[in-house]
Design a protein that fits this description.
91 residues; mainly alpha; elongated
């Protein structure tokens, strides 16, 4: 019985540190993600955007579609929500 209790206590102590480990792992992943986005942005702006200039005159539709795709859209990704209808009072 004491051995089972000791095992339960040890398991509990090990589980206490798990939330902190998750926070640390998430923080490290977020930092890596920021660096990956920065590298991707550098490739786009320093290489791909410049390469696309070759198509401005020869393939204007393709060029314009690329420029539209590169346009940053706000967090909602679309139009702002419509205003709610005015409240009406009952009879």
């Amino acid at each position: 019985m004491l051995t089972a209790l000791r095992s339960a206590i040890d398991a509990y102590r090990a589980s206490i540190s798990l939330p902190r480990q998750v926070i640390t792992t998430t923080s490290a992943a977020t930092t890596q993600l920021d660096a990956a986005f920065a590298r991707a942005e550098a490739v786009l702006t320093k290489q791909l955007d410049k390469l696309m200039e070759l198509y401005r005159l020869t393939h204007p539709t393709f060029y314009q579609e690329y420029q539209s795709a590169r346009e940053i859209i706000g967090p909602t990704g679309g139009s702002p929500p419509a205003a709610p209808p005015p409240a009406t009072s009952g009879p």
